[in-house]
Write a structure and sequence with these properties.
single chain; alpha+beta; three-stranded antiparallel β-sheet; 2 helices; 3 strands
């Protein structure tokens, strides 16, 4: 289907001017400012919880999988 669209010159959406917001950059953060996410992951062993922390400045990432998401595992992760 993609090749058919390419052949007829309709493989991309047309550019719309004026409706897009201007792209900005993230404001600068000091090293140590972390973005933290928690997600539920299903594996062959069952359900696990995925903790992720990313430093906004250095882009260093730390990940941990735990069996249960509670105060103890969250504080241990941090």
């Amino acid at each position: 289907m993609h090749r058919c669209f390419q052949r007829h010159g309709i493989s991309r959406l047309s550019e719309v001017d004026g409706d897009k917001p201007a792209k900005g950059k993230f404001k600068p953060y000091p090293i140590g400012y972390f973005h933290v996410d928690i997600a539920e992951v299903r594996t062959a062993e069952g359900k696990l919880h995925f903790y992720l922390a990313i430093d906004r400045t250095s882009k260093f990432a730390f990940v941990q999988l735990v069996k249960s998401a509670n105060r103890v595992t969250a504080s241990t992760f941090l």
